[in-house]
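Hey, I'm writing a tutorial for new members on how sequence and structure tokens pair up, and I'd like a real worked example in the thread rather than a made-up one. If someone can provide the structure for the chain below, I'll link this post from the tutorial.
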Amino acid sequence: MKNIGLFGGTFDPIHNGHLHIARAFADEIGLDMVVFLPAGDPYHKEQATKTPAKHRFTMAEMAIADEPRFAVSDCDMVREGATYTFDTVQIFRQQFPAARLWWLLGSDSLMQLHTWHKWQTLVRQVNFAVAMREGATLNQVPRELHAWLGDGLQNGSVKILQAPLYDVSSTQIRQVIRSGKDADSLLPQPVARYIRNQGLYR
């Protein structure tokens, strides 16, 4: 049975921290493939991303070019209106009916999971791998998620990744570039070049 990981995000821009956690996701869960899913219009982010999806998609493709286990899908970009994780998972269910699907989320998203669209059905249709932020613990998980999380940790449908998240964010990188400094050490080289050539985040 194929093990497929799904990694959604705005990827504005994709950076070394994203690749680090995707590799940990693939290694620790034993995934055949990790699919990066750049968001179209992220309905639950305060401010929808300003960088056109085509740039974010291109940067993601460049970042993973040398990683045989990684792929990029535009399925969240081409859908009209709000894109819900629930619908994305249905699309991959249809594409890979025999696969075991895993959704990667950070511990901050885990704390919000009970507010997601159709979350109670979603958690029955996909497994979850959780990347913990520095200082985050499962004790902080809201009461609504306790029963599901306890069951999932026991039956293996929820895994806590051993690798911690890198302490770097796309927001920080955009700020560094905007201030005229160099963010190359935080980015895959082709992505850093593309940002310069396209004049992004200036």
